[in-house]
UniProtKB/TrEMBL annotation:
Pfam families with a match to the protein in the record: ABC_tran
Domain ABC transporter: 2-237
SUPFAM superfamilies documented for this protein: CBS-domain pair (SSF54631), P-loop containing nucleoside triphosphate hydrolases (SSF52540)
A single cellular component GO annotation: membrane
Similarity annotation: Belongs to the ABC transporter superfamily.
InterPro entries, alphabetized: AAA+_ATPase (IPR003593), ABC_transporter-like_ATP-bd (IPR003439), ABC_transporter-like_CS (IPR017871), CBS_dom_sf (IPR046342), Gly-betaine_transp_ATP-bd (IPR005892), P-loop_NTPase (IPR027417)
CDD domains: ABC_OpuCA_Osmoprotection (cd03295)
Protein name: ABC-type quaternary amine transporter
Amino acid sequence: MIRFEQVSKRYPDGTTAVDGLSFEVAEGELVTLVGPSGCGKTTTMMMVNRLIEPTSGRIFVAGEDIAGVDPVRLRRRIGYVIQQVGLFPHRTVLDNTATVPALIGWKKARARARAAELLDLVGLDPKTFGSRYPEQLSGGQRQRVGVARALAADPPVLLMDEPFGAVDPVVREQLQDEFLRMQSAVRKTVLLVTHDIEEAVRLGDRIAVYGQGRIEQFDTPGAVLGAPATPYVAEFVGADRGLKRLSVTEIQSADLEQPPIARLDESAEQAAARLREEEARWAVVLDADGDLHGWVGVDEVGLAGSGGAVGDLAHRMNSWVPVGAPLKQAFGVMLQHDAGWVAVLDGARFLGVLTPAKLHEALRRSVDADAQGLARSQVEFDSVADA
């Protein structure tokens, strides 16, 4: 969808903002441009909508060389979101959102209907917020309106320059979550500029790590964190890149251990006998369909006598995560509940448990898989969990 071919930008004073950039962004892909201030990432983005003209090289959008496209027409088909939002203070939220559709000739009713649809998509009820003015909104709400406005004319490309940088960390994370949810629904081709490596890792399908005017590494978040291409990238992503990688490594079924199982409707006496035979201190309690019901300790079922059922003794399971969740989420649940493991579910169906040793193993496999160009299941090493 977006292609750079040997693109450079040099200013009359001799400053080179970007130097010989060549990369591609696939349709529906979200690419984050990350690096320190002054490295050329914003210049790169602004050349896509010709707010800055390149000195040399060519940029293509949807196969068309943008040098031959009228800049105004080009910008009206590319969404643009900036940190300061730039809403018109004298216009309502609904009219702000409908700005671009109105400019390209949509009828007022259609433009306002589209604006209402987009406000709802970004989590702002148009009935509640549509008639308000920007000064009546919080910073996070204004940022949501800015995203809605950028999407209103249904542009194939979205450019975002530090879109969540002007809000506090809690709101920032909420906006990131909302944007990821929205992107999964609309699948725009996105270039997002940030100086925050954690934001880049969390949002990007791929990351372009900038040095001074050039890209030092262009790869998936996992590869950037697990196998930095240069000493510069390793220093930029930080010594704690292993912890950052927890947020981009998904839990897979192969990562799990299978604990002792007790069935919801079996007698406590039967369960106790089996658990003692297995020398197990506890068991996961499942119903007949394999859905998670809770957990129970061996001593509890042992004391219940022959008349009780496992289901009467089971405790609620609070420490669980869905399969496919990031390892960081599982680690957080372990810490929150002071748990030695977390249950992993597919819907309600129980798949197994993730222990600290297995979490570490999954992280190691993920790093080695990227380094060796293999699937995680193909990576072999001595496991701490098996020692």
